[in-house]
Fold this protein.
Amino acid sequence: MGKLDINKKLKRDSLLNTSFELFTSQGINQTSISDIVKKAGVAKGTFYLYFKDKYDIRNRLIARKSSQLFGKAYAALMHEHVSSVEDKVVFMVKHILSELSRDPKLIALIYKDLSWALFKEAVTNYSDEDDENFLSIIESMFDHSDVKYRNHEVMMFLIVEMVSSAGYSSIVYNQPMPLDELMPELETAVRSIMKTYEE
């Protein structure tokens, strides 16, 4: 990477980091592009070199943070002796929810976007070359699985929707119970969904 590319990356990362800080402290609706560029210490024109508007930068943040969450879970999984796809999915679900429970700023940013459809769209359309390509990793997991699943994308949609909704309520509101108590119930539900989709 040349000096110009490094400078571009630094400016873009500064805008992303500043946006994350402002979006999570004062909300996206209360944050203007002027607020972002002022705090990042760049010209407004620089913002538009990288992003269309504040919703574009929000989508890129969701893609980046989602990829980072998945990347951490996948890296942790690589250090475990987990062989079945079912066990891998359960492990990653638990890891991601645990990470979210320790990061209230992150859950404040992505709480409305904790869904398979939006998650997939964000990562497909907004991921950077540095981001973990979780879609291809999941495809590979299913391709190399001893157990075959029908419609595994639909299955993952159902799992992510169920886990994200229940996990959010548990983390933010302690409803229907705190996350550590809910986790075994979520594991049972995930395994049940996966069993239903076995071929």
User: Anything to note?
Assistant: Residues 111 and 168 are 7 Å apart (CA to CA). The two ends are 47 Å apart (CA to CA).
